[in-house]
C-alpha cells in the first residue's frame, strides 16, 4: 500500500531520515521489503515542525520520491525534531497532490498506510458523519483523508486514541451495514508537533507491518563503535513501516491492535480497539 516514517527527537536534516539509511524511505519507495507491493511511486509527502510557526510545513508531490530532485534539495536543508514522511501506492484513488500524505489541519498532521475496503460504497455515509465545520477542509478523495476528518470530528485534538478508536468504530459499523466484512486495514500516525501517536490495527487482525526503534542508549552500549548511534540523542524515537537498516536488535515490532505514544522522549505502548458504538 504505502510506507511511512515518523520521527521525534533532536533536530536532524530530512535527508538523515529519507536518504541516508540503508533502507531509507526513498529506498522503500522503489524497493519495499515488507509492503503489499515493492514499489510506492504514486507520490510522496513530508511534514515537519520548526521554531518559526506552530503550523507544520508540508511538501507533497505526485512524482515518485526516488526521482524528485526538489525533495533531495529540500531534504539537505530542512532541519526538524518532528517529522512525518510518506510514500504512496494508491489503492484506487487518483494520483494528485491533495491525495498525498501527510494531511494537515491546524497544528496536526496525519498519515495512513492501508485502506478502507469498499470505500466507494461507504464514502457517502462516512463523509456525512464529518463535522460540517470540518467538511470544507477535505481537499482530496482518499479514504485516509476521510478517516482523518472523522477523527477530528471525534476529538482528535483533545484525545487522539479515543478519536481514532471512534473513527475506526464508525467505519466498521458502516461497513457492516453495507456487507463489507473486514473494512479497516492500516497503520496510522498523527502528531501535534510535541507528541506522537502511532497505531497498528486491522479488522481481521492482520495489520500492515510497523516497527519502533530500540532505545538509543541501549544500542549505543551494544554497538559502541557505530558512528550513527553517537549522532542520535537518547530521546530519539522513530516509528517506521519497515526497519531502516539491518542492525540486530535495533527495531522492535509494534504489536497487533496497539498504539504507541511518544511524549518528551518517553514511549508507551497500549492496546487499541475501535469503539463500535460510535455515532
UniProtKB/TrEMBL annotation:
Glutamine amidotransferase type-2 domain span: 2-279
Taxonomic placement: Bacteria, Bacillati, Actinomycetota, Actinomycetes, Micrococcales
CDD domains cross-referenced by the UniProt entry: YafJ
Example GO molecular function: transferase activity
Organism: Cellulomonas biazotea
Keywords: Glutamine amidotransferase, Transferase
InterPro entries, sorted: EgtC-like, Gamma-glu_amide_hydrolase, GATase_2_dom, Ntn_hydrolases_N
Coiled-coil features, chain-numbered ranges: none
Identification of the protein by name: Class II glutamine amidotransferase
